Amino acid sequence: MKITYPHMGNLYIAIRALLLKLGLDPVLPPPTSRKTALLGVRHAPEFACFPLKLNLGNFLEAREMGADTVLMGGGIGPCRFGYYAEVQREILADLGVSMEMVVLEPPSGDWVTFKTRTRSLVGDCSWWQVLKAIRFAWYKARAVDALESKLLYLRPRLCEPLQLEAIYREALRRVDMAENRRGLDLAVSDFLKDTRGLPGKSGDLLRVGLVGEIFTVLDPYANYDIERHLGLLGVEVTRSIFLSEWINEHLFGGLFHVGGLDHLKEAASPYLNAFVGGHGRETVGATVHFARQGYDGVVQVAPFTCMPEIVAHSVLPAVTRDHGIPTLSFYLDEQSGVAGIVTRLEAFVDLLEARRKKRLKEGV
Amino acid sequence: MIKVGIPRSLLYYSYFPLWRAFFTEMGAEVVVSPETNKAILDAGLRSALDETCLPVKLFFGHVLALTGSVDYLLVPRLISVEPKAYICPKFMGLPDMLRARIPNLPPLIDVAVDFSRGTGNWENVLSSMGRLLAGDRRLIRQACRSAQAAQSLFQEQLEKGWLLPEALNGAAGERGTERPAPPSPGSGRLNIALLGHDYNIYDEYISMNLIKRLRSMGARVATADLVSQAVIDEQAGTLPKKLFWTLGKKMIGAAFAFCDSGQFDGIIYVSSFGCGPESLVGELLARWVKRRRGIPFMLLTIDEHSGAAGLVTRLEAFTDMLLRREKG
Fold first, then answer.
1. What pTM was estimated for this model as a whole?
2. Is residue B193 classed as helix, strand or coil in its secondary structure?
3. Do A191 and A216 fall within a single domain?
4. Helices A11-21 and A127-154 meet at what angle, rounded to 10?
5. Same domain, B122 and B247
6. Cα B233 from chain centroid?
7. Fewer CB within 10 Å: N-end or C-end of chain A?
8. ipTM of the assembly?
9. Taking a contact as any Cβ pair under 8 Å apart, which residues of chain B between 234 and 263 contact chain A?
10. Does A340 touch chain B (CB under 8 A)?
């Protein structure tokens, strides 16, 4: 069985570790590219959201590399992600591509089904080995998060951000290759050490929170490298949600007891008082949270036609009105041009700068 | 007399008899927004977020048509009307979206309707609504009963072959009056199954009179409302994974039932631009219908820019093709 799975930012590192530890043979699709997008767009429904199209492109590219099985996440709605695998299976079938779909549905109380499904995937592995593999994948995800958040912090602060990125890529490669926890810890601590001596800039930075739908937040292809563009404009970006949180919540059924996003749900009230699928409520909550923390602005990203994020976006004007935090929303799909996105980001950053200057003046 | 406003939009088409009977019995005056027109649509387009789908934009328009003239506005938070299935994220956030975007809203009756965990029922929902109007308990209980009677009469009429707008009018008539015999379904040569969410296909303005146009082209039109809930559940139960959208389930269950009946010449599926669930449901349906029966299938996407001429051309082409197939 040659098993493949879709890309979502650096998710591949954690999943590859999981599959290897389970004794499986993973096939990593090539990094998502224009070609991936075109393949996906050609065969996916026109108004499906962007991640579905990119996933499909990933599968087709992995097929060319010999993959015969797809590992996909599931869900119980109302967000469309929960039905992705069903649609993708039908599309592949109509294309005459014979790939089996293995869908990791969240356990949702039914542990027996969950157990048999997992068992069919892992074969002869003992449960102890499965648990160990999950734990190792989790540490990898945490290591990736540590690197990414440090990168976001440092990029606007250093004179040579490109040099930083090179060091980051090397550290990421080492995390990917690491075979035990010691290797992971070493990769992260070396990254921190290597970046410590780099010459920095002085001055007050603008701080922007990045909120929105998880795939477009985490995947630099899908969001047209929005974090990088902001960083190079001298803005410190803070994400509302990281990879490990999504993995824990979505794939491992909340196995690890980490902070969670409950505080964001509370902060969303009174603007959004109900669960609306996906991370819609967290988007609103995180915007309020960033405003309270004194951030200069919030950028929201979501796939075009994303339902939960549209609800969140609809109520954001009320958050702006009450908390005085500017927001900028991007809906992303295969049509987005990077020049247009950068222009809008530049205008937004100019606005934030002007606001800050005005405030300082009024303060004095 | 307290005036309760009900926007003529979204799930008005599914639950109006229930809501109307309840609030009337509670001693309130029920005010429904006018039928969709250009002014209502334009008002909706101005106040709703650009990215929302056409039906939600239209809902904003209907709400705006009522603000200022009613004491309460009925906008229940419709999360789920059956176990393990939802309507749509936008329905779940509807009261919040309105509050954030429309100033000077009348107080909303935004009781949550959530039967997703298998608990909860309309009686509890209606009671909570009744308490908002400060009615006494006996009155509420009585209003619940007549509301549910009105709703089941409505369901019955739909399954007997009434088109939904006709049944809505029937249910809106005086209680106790004789039910008129169901009107004949039209005397055309073609049998066409028209699928789409109620609020799209029965809104004459948005659907550009689709049903009447089909009838005038000599087609007999059947909709998903003809199919009983039991059949829909059974047909949708054949899917590899349970569909978690109530409206999508209805479309798929009805389409399968229509396919199996072997009585239909073609299926027309109406979807609105930007509808999330439909983007996947419509796609799956097109593939499955093709594999199952090979019945001709046409997807019509409507939005605020749709022109009637384009619609007519496509309908004519489709019906011509069906007629030619019949001959050949």
1. 0.93
2. strand
3. no
4. 160
5. no
6. 18
7. C
8. 0.92
9. 239-241, 243-245
10. no
